[in-house]
Predict the structure.
Amino acid sequence: LDGSSIIDANFSVGSIFGIWPGKGVLHRTGREQLASAVSLYGPRTTLCIALPASSTSKGKPVVLEVTLVKNRIGWELSRDNISIKPDGKVFAPGNLRATNDNAKYNALVQHWISDRYTLRYSGGMVPDVYHIFAKSKGVFSNVSSEKAKAKLRLLYEVAPIGLMVECAQGVTTHEAYEKSVLDIPIDDLDQRLGVCFGSANEVAIYKKFMFGESS
């Protein structure tokens, strides 16, 4: 269950699923997943499902959403093709403690504020990233620092959601260097890292602030 720290406040929480072929996941990458899914438990119960091109009959990736209906006994297709627009001035800045001793992250957050981005942050990874799928735009970050260590686990959280973001034409990157989270090998079951997910041009802005890249 993602969001255990906010469940007592009755916030929306969710679950994250990654589906892998064969046995074992060590030394593999998220790009090998056959599918991933994210469920959100809120006013509605919804499930987003990501299928990479290799798992579809049309040879292209797809992200769709189903909603639990009929007194919670059946699922109904609610969105058949979710895609993330290149731009979207909506931000969800995770691990804000890191801005205290990570000057680049602090500068990025100040940019979002001064440029009048809309804040949509609950403290739960699933609802915050799901908001990007719901609005088809936005950026989610979770950056670490020396005093505020990375918390997101590559295997259980980052890789499944990363697949979903990229299947929806979004972009992912490691927090500190240019690399899709789907290309980072899983060397430990508890391997943790910082990330940025979302609209392509918003992630490009992240890269410019965090490691000096324009794209």
In short: The helical segments are 103-114, 125-135, 154-167, 200-211. The first strand starts at residue 13 and ends at 19.
